[in-house]
Automatic annotation (TrEMBL):
Region named Disordered: 366-478
GO CC terms: DNA polymerase III complex
SUPFAM superfamilies to which the protein is assigned, alphabetical: P-loop containing nucleoside triphosphate hydrolases (SSF52540), post-AAA+ oligomerization domain-like (SSF48019)
The gene coding this protein: dnaX
Native source organism of the sequence: candidate division WOR-3 bacterium
Name of the protein described by the UniProt record: DNA polymerase III subunit gamma/tau
Family according to the record: Belongs to the DnaX/STICHEL family.
Length: 478
């Protein structure tokens, strides 16, 4: 029986022409090879399954293909050098796992071996995968060799955590950031693979697989092969949701629609049924976040491109987006993101589902009318009014001050500053009543119908100046 290879290895890119999505990487490297400007070290950073290690192997073949006397952008793939590099059997191309060989001892061994010339190829190539896993001493031991390597050596680092690589390493490399593939790009790749392998699959199924792959082409290819084994007669979208444990998109639309109508019991019933059927709570939570993200894109800018939506899904989301305000979408996303950590670590998933339903009902339910009165039994007291602290009663025999004046109950002596002169200190007339100072009164007339405790307008500048003078005068007397 002939040996069968999995799709991810059988259709792995072997030349730059096979490399998908990463056009900026392909164009730059091919020009560097053509113009003999290949760098000493490269850093390939990006998410999983987007072609970092494959690009490193392609570059190694371009530098060492034996069908060409000089580096070429089109390696033959048939010579011994190309075959050995493609199968990871070359003694001059080293693929090192940074997670397993992360210590300073392994780096010291590398530094000793790099001095020797290659055994059969033009140059040695060191491919270190997950380079961010190296220890700090290992990185430090690599600095000098990385800055001034031998002429016959090249370094290619690959990582999914580019921010964890020390700046001293990055400054000695040419960095390339690999981007995620869009659902449409992954679906196109899966359609091509299905045609090559005679796999029957609907467009809706391939798009569902592409969304599940989350930008990783390799993940999409693995899922396609798994589903081809599960349903050899033909892959449908229902099989994708069943096999991968996904919540159908119409469930999220129904759940959100009931919340919009204020049907909390209906939304709780939907969440409970999903839990009883064994759906993962994190899967439901992630799908809900994605649902409201799609609503935000369609509602704010009518941007459905790049979301990986079928026409009927786009129409359903557009209809629901028209029933939501922008504030409701923003509040819902804030709520979902706020409970993300709780959702991933909770030991009571059913309680979490109920809590989410209650919170979302408060955020999306029918709004209360703005004129609704509060529970305050006093007539004429509206909900929008703010409570005010009680003010002390004026002393006996003292006239209360008009609204907006200083809150001090007793007059304070004037300041002793020479410039500017302080206003004269109020004197008490017969009967214990305070006389008003000369000059215009900046305060409102005593007949102002609005009580001082209910005024919301800030004091005027004159009031603030008067209050500061009284405070300073009080401090000087003390």
């Amino acid at each position: 029986m002939p040996e069968r290879r999995v799709l991810t290895l059988k259709y792995r890119p072997q030349t730059f022409a096979d490399l998908l999505v990463q056009d900026h990487v392909r164009d730059t490297l091919t020009r560097a090879i053509t113009n003999n400007r290949v760098a000493n070290a490269y850093l390939f950073a990006g998410p999983r399954g987007v072609g970092k290690t494959s690009t490193a192997r392609i570059l190694a073949k371009c530098l060492n293909c034996q069908e060409s006397e000089t580096p070429t952008v089109t390696p033959c793939g048939a010579c011994s050098a190309c075959v050995e590099i493609a199968t990871s059997r070359s003694i001059d191309v080293f693929e090192i796992d940074g997670a397993s060989n992360r210590g300073i001892d392994q780096v010291r061994e590398l530094r000793e071996n790099i001095k020797y010339s290659p055994a059969s190829l033009r140059c040695k190539v060191y491919i270190i995968d997950e380079v961010h896993m190296l220890t700090e001493p290992a990185f430090n031991a690599l600095l000098k060799t990385l800055e001034e390597p031998p002429a016959h050596a090249r370094f290619i680092f690959a990582t999914t955590e580019g921010h964890l690589v020390p700046a001293t390493i990055i400054s000695r490399c040419q960095r390339f950031d690999f981007r995620r593939a869009t659902p449409e790009e992954i679906a196109a790749r899966l359609r091509w693979l299905a045609d090559q392998e005679d796999i029957k699959a609907s467009d809706a199924a391939l798009l569902a697989i592409a969304r599940r792959a989350d930008g990783a082409i390799r993940d999409g290819e693995s899922i396609l092969e798994q589903l081809a084994t599960y349903q050899p007669e033909g892959i449908e979208a229902s099989a994708v949701t069943e096999m991968l444990g996904l919540v159908p998109g119409e469930v999220y639309a129904d759940y959100t629609g009931r919340l919009l109508l204020g049907d909390l019991a209906g939304s709780l019933r939907i969440a409970g049924e999903l839990f009883d059927r064994g759906f993962d709570v994190i899967e439901f939570y992630s799908g809900l976040v994605q649902h409201f993200r799609n609503l935000a894109h369609i509602q704010i800018a009518d941007q459905a491109e790049g979301l990986g939506l079928l026409p009927e899904e786009r129409e359903r989301l557009a209809d629901q987006a028209r029933k939501l305000t922008r504030g409701q979408v923003i509040r819902t996303l804030e709520l979902l993101l706020r409970v993300e950590d709780t959702a991933r670590h909770t030991r009571m998933p059913r309680v979490l589902l109920d809590y989410l339903s209650l919170e979302l009902a408060a955020a999306l339910g029918p709004a209360q009318p703005a004129s609704a009165p509060s529970e305050d039994p006093r007539p004429g007291k509206m909900q929008s009014e703010r409570p005010h602290p009680t003010r002390p009663e004026p002393e006996a025999g003292t006239k209360s001050r008009p609204a907006g004046s200083s809150s001090k109950p007793k007059p304070v002596p004037p300041t002793r500053q020479k410039s500017p002169p302080a206003p004269p200190r109020p004197r008490k007339a017969a009967g214990g009543k305070a006389e008003k100072p000369a000059g215009p009164d900046p305060n409102p007339a005593p007949g102002d119908p609005t009580p001082a405790g209910d005024r919301e307008s800030p004091p005027s500048n004159d009031d603030l100046i008067e209050q500061m003078r009284r405070i300073l005068g009080d401090v000087e007397e003390r």
